[in-house]
User: Which sequence fits this backbone?
């Protein structure tokens, strides 16, 4: 069983930055990928970014390309989401996720483990 614990959310002004962290505990993560999703009030949860765990390939939702950067530290069993140039529309609860098998990283139904979520609020 993999447990995911997020940290790093908070309140920031538009144009500011935050870095989210997600540590996988229980045992060294040996799955295919880890990712971040977010859910804004009244909206469905959506894909934000993912990283292939072994190869390091990254994937981004169009609205965050060039502003967000996902990375992983294999030794620390941790994935990060660096968020720059934040906008009010980035306000959401951000969830860390992990998937065991390869294939698409875009769909939440393909992920096996989820964190509890961390709130990110961007003020205008």
Assistant:
């Amino acid at each position: 069983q993999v447990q995911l614990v997020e940290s790093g959310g908070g309140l920031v002004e538009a144009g500011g930055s935050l870095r989210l962290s997600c540590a996988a505990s229980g045992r060294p993560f040996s799955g295919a990928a880890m990712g971040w999703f977010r859910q804004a009030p009244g909206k469905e949860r959506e894909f934000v970014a993912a990283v292939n765990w072994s190869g390091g390939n990254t994937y981004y939702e169009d609205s965050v390309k060039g502003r967000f950067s996902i990375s992983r530290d294999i030794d620390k069993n941790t994935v990060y989401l660096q968020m720059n140039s934040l906008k009010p529309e980035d306000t959401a609860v951000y969830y860390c996720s992990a998937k065991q098998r390869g294939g698409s990283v875009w769909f939440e139904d393909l992920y096996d483990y989820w964190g509890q979520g961390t709130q990110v609020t961007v003020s205008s």
